[in-house]
């Protein structure tokens, strides 16, 4: 099942410097909550800037769903300090509120009011809000408040230059698609290790047959004994099945054609919703399978930074894949900023490994097989003697066997990366995390569930959020000085006003003629 890559690792050992300069970026989502745990009902604070134009602080689906965005960097400590500084700044401006530390909003109840994110009166701002109205109409507002970490990763151009020559691949995009296919085959290892959503509220359990499979704790939170990341299940933040769209990541052109097809093809289900509500207000951008590219929710996506006025599809078509976006990370509740250094180090190793091993083209049956393995891990990953499918014949190996085989390779890659930096951080992470396979109680999901059963999900969330709030307001900035942050607030508001003043066409014409990002 897993290719022997000892020859490739030996080649890397001879050329270790080609891995120098991995770039990473982090996008962290978190709900603003009141001190009592209820959703904040206030609008996005003016004091932290314009959600439309701020470089690092915006909103996702809802007014109280913050999103923090770091620039890309090849320095992990810089990246984490940058993210911490954003948290500290926002905490200082919202001292009567807290940031929810879990992916799942366990603090939701029937009285909760979810206000869709607002971005001002410009055509761009209205389009962003209308897109989110479409998400609400299509999937419901609660599901869209589920939070996550997006981890952006790119290998050095020097690596790709040598890799293309050694492996006779035609482009960097082909190399990244190789990585992506292998992430589907083996990426379930990430929710097993780092999944932190083993429980869910009754509001996500619409299927009465499913609810009987769940146990319930004292504060009416539903859980499965061995689950890891219910956020990634059909109850969580998923929508369009990539298999139905025939998206297989075998080559860039076919991927882009499938994506364009989904954006141009009407959906019977979404036609029934209608473009307008009964009052005549626009409630979705269109009635197609996808309103825009970003509506395709997958575990990993190929990305390219678009130029101004350029869509993601256009950018990928013209210049190829620049990096991959990992979307299967739950918020880490044991870190004040939702992710920690050990996770980043492990992700680096695993994504390099996914690049090194061969990745045959995938058909629909192959994707069905990978989906079955992801579901096994999501719903019962910590089950004793859990088995994973290794081929279409339904042959299996145990999770422990596969995990330990992968980690043998990861440890060899760790040695190379540590040699570059003259330390042992990557090897230490391997040594620590490999123990999660034989002892599932060490996984994040097991630790979360223990807290939920002993203390309660909501109480645990409040304890963490209060602890982290105190940490934020008492910590000095390392990277982003206060003056820089305050100036960005002013600049973002000014920039929003300029965008609003420069509009020359009607909103209706704008959404017909331009497919600007949302």
UniProtKB/TrEMBL annotation:
Domain of life: Bacteria
UniProt keyword annotation of Ribonucleoprotein present: no
All residue ranges annotated as the Glutamate--cysteine ligase domain in the record: 10-377
Entry keywords, A to Z: ATP-binding, Glutathione biosynthesis, Ligase, Nucleotide-binding
Any one annotated GO CC term: cytosol
MF terms (GO), sorted A to Z: ATP binding; glutamate-cysteine ligase activity; metal ion binding
Record pathway: Sulfur metabolism; glutathione biosynthesis; glutathione from L-cysteine and L-glutamate: step 1/2
Reactions catalysed: L-cysteine + L-glutamate + ATP = gamma-L-glutamyl-L-cysteine + ADP + phosphate + H(+)
Keyword ATP-binding: yes
Enzyme Commission no: 6.3.2.2
Swiss-Prot/TrEMBL GO biological process terms: glutathione biosynthetic process
Top-level EC class as recorded in UniProt: ligase
SUPFAM superfamilies recorded: Glutamine synthetase/guanido kinase
A Pfam family it matches: Glu_cys_ligase
Annotated HAMAP family: Glu_cys_ligase
Family: Belongs to the glutamate--cysteine ligase type 1 family. Type 1 subfamily.
Protein name: Glutamate--cysteine ligase
Native source species: Buchnera aphidicola subsp. Diuraphis noxia
């Amino acid at each position: 099942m897993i290719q022997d890559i000892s020859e490739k690792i030996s080649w890397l050992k001879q050329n270790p410097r080609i891995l120098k300069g991995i770039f990473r970026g982090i996008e962290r989502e978190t709900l603003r909550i009141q001190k009592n745990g209820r959703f904040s009902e206030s609008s996005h604070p003016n004091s932290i800037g314009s959600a439309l134009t701020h470089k690092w602080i915006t909103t996702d689906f809802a007014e109280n769903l913050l999103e923090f965005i770091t620039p890309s960097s090849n320095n992990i400590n810089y990246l984490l300090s940058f993210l911490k500084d954003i948290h500290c700044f926002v905490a200082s401006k919202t001292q009567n509120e807290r940031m929810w530390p879990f992916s799942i909003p366990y603090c939701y109840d029937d009285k909760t009011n979810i206000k869709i994110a607002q971005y001002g009166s410009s055509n761009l701002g209205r389009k962003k809000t209308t897109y989110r109205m479409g998400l609400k109409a299509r999937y419901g507002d609660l599901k869209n408040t589920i939070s996550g970490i997006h981890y952006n990763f790119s290998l050095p151009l020097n690596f790709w230059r040598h890799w293309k020559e050694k492996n006779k691949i035609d482009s960097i995009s082909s190399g990244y698609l190789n990585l992506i296919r292998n992430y589907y085959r083996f990426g379930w290892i990430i929710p097993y290790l780092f999944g932190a959503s083993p429980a869910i509220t009754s509001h996500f359990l619409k299927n009465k047959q499913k609810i009987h499979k769940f146990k319930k704790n004292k504060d009416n939170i539903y859980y499965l004994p061995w689950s890891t990341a219910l956020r990634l299940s059909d109850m969580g933040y998923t929508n369009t099945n990539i298999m139905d769209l025939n998206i297989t990541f075998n080559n860039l052109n076919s991927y882009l054609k499938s994506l364009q097809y989904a954006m141009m093809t009407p959906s019977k289900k979404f036609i029934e919703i209608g473009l307008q509500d009964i009052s005549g207000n626009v409630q979705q951008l269109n009635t197609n399978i996808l309103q825009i590219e970003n509506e395709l929710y997958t575990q990993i996506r190929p990305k390219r930074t678009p130029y101004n006025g350029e869509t993601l599809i256009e950018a990928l078509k013209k210049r190829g894949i620049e990096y991959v976006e990992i979307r299967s990370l739950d918020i880490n509740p044991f870190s004040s900023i939702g992710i920690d250094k050990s996770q980043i180090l492990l992700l680096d190793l695993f994504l390099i490994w996914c690049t090194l091993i061969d990745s045959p083209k995938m058909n629909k049956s192959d994707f069905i097989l990978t989906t079955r393995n992801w579901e096994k891990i999501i719903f019962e990953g910590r089950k004793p003697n859990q088995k994973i499918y290794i081929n279409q014949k339904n042959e299996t190996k145990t999770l422990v066997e596969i995990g330990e085989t992968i980690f043998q390779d990861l440890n060899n890659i760790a040695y190379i990366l540590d040699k570059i930096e003259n330390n042992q951080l990557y090897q230490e992470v391997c040594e620590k995390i490999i123990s999660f396979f034989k002892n599932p109680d060490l996984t994040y999901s097991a630790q979360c569930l223990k807290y939920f059963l002993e203390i309660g999900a909501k109480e645990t969330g409040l304890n963490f959020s209060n602890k982290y709030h105190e940490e934020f307001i008492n910590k000095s900035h390392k990277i982003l000085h206060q003056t820089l942050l305050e100036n960005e607030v002013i600049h973002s508001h000014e920039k929003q006003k300029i965008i609003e003043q420069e509009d020359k066409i009607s909103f209706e014409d704008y959404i017909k003629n331009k497919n600007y990002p949302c």
